[in-house]
C-alpha cells in the first residue's frame, strides 16, 4: 500500500510540476512597475498615509522607522542633508512603503494620495519624489483624466489600451531624471488616487496587458479630442512618416468642437504676432488658400485641409508661419480652419431732403461678409481697414488630429452597443493602421 501511495505521489508530482512552472511564468507576467516622477527640485514635502507605513533607507533597504496611519512627517532638504521633522537623518535617499502593500490604501505626498511606494532622492537642486506603481494602477488614475468616465465601455477600453501603449512607448523619456514618466502633459497627466473612477478602472482591468504593437514594439499612440471629420497623416503634422498614423474618416459630428468659430480684430492679430517677435506693422492681408473638401486642397494645406503654412502681410513686414504656430499664437482648437473678413456696413447714411437739406438716418443692415474675396490671387484676403472689421476663424476639430479621436471612439462604441457587432479592438484598428493588438502580460 505504501509503495502504491508513493507511486501515486510521484505520478502526481510529475504531472503537476510542469503545470506549476507554467503557472509561475504566467504569474510573473503581471503588470510591470513604472516609476513616475511626481516632483523635482523640492526643498520640503509633507508625507503621510491612510494605513501604517514605514520609512526606509532606499540604498540599504533598512527600515528607519515605522509609523501609524495618518502620522504626518515633514521632510526638508537643506545644506545637502535630509531632515525628518527637523532632525537630520543619515540616509541620502529614502523610501516610503505601506506595511501592507496589498491594501487598497495610499501614501500621501503634499496632501495627494498615491498607490504603490515612494522614493525621495536628494540631489544638489533639491528632492525628487518618485512614485513606484504597477502600470495598470497608474492607468486607473490616467484614463479617467483623458476620457469622461460616463462614456461607453468599449470607448473607455480603447482609451485604456492607447494610454497603456503610450506609457510603454514613453518609458525612456526621463531616463536621465531617474524615473520613467513625469506626471504632466509632457507624458500623461497623473494626479494619484483621487482621480480614479469606477468605469475607467473596469476598462483597465478588462484590457489588462493589452497593447498596440508595430514590429513587436509598442507604437507611439497619440489621441485627441475630435478631428473635425478626418484624422491626419503623421508626416503632415510633424514631418515623420509612421505607417500606423494614417488619415481616416472620423465620425465625430456629435462632438461639441466638431465645428468652432473665433472672431479676432486685425489689431489683436498685430498685437499677438508682435508679442511672439513678429512686428509686422498694420495688418494688410492674410495669405491662405480656401478650405476645400479632403483630397482637393492646395500646397499650403494637408490633404485633409489642415494648414501647413499661412502668411500675415503687414505694412512693415511679412511673416510666414506654420499651422501649428498660428494655432498656438491665437489659441485655436485645431489647424483645420478657414478665415473670412467681416466688414460692417455704415450704420448711418445721409438722405437728401429737397435741394438744400440733408437728414441723417440710421440703417440696420447685416454686416457684409466677403466670401469669394479675389484681389491679387484668390488666396490673398485683404483687410479693408474699416472700424469694427473682424477676421473670423471657422474651424473643425480640437487637437492635433493624430491617432484616435475620442469623440469618434465614443460614436463607434455607442453604435457597437446598439448593434452588438464590435468592440474596442475595432476602434483601435480604425484609428491606428497596420498594428497588432496583443496581450503582453
Ligand atoms: Zn514627461
TrEMBL record:
- List the Pfam families hit by this protein, alphabetically: SpoIID (PF08486)
Q: Which GO terms describe its cellular component?
A: outer membrane-bounded periplasmic space
Superkingdom is Bacteria
Q: Which residues form the Sporulation stage II protein D amidase enhancer LytB N-terminal domain?
A: 125-214
- Tell me a GO biological process for this protein: sporulation resulting in formation of a cellular spore
The record's NCBIfam families line, in alphabetical order, gives: SpoIID_LytB
Q: What is this protein called?
A: Stage II sporulation protein D
Q: Which organism is it from?
A: Propionispira arboris
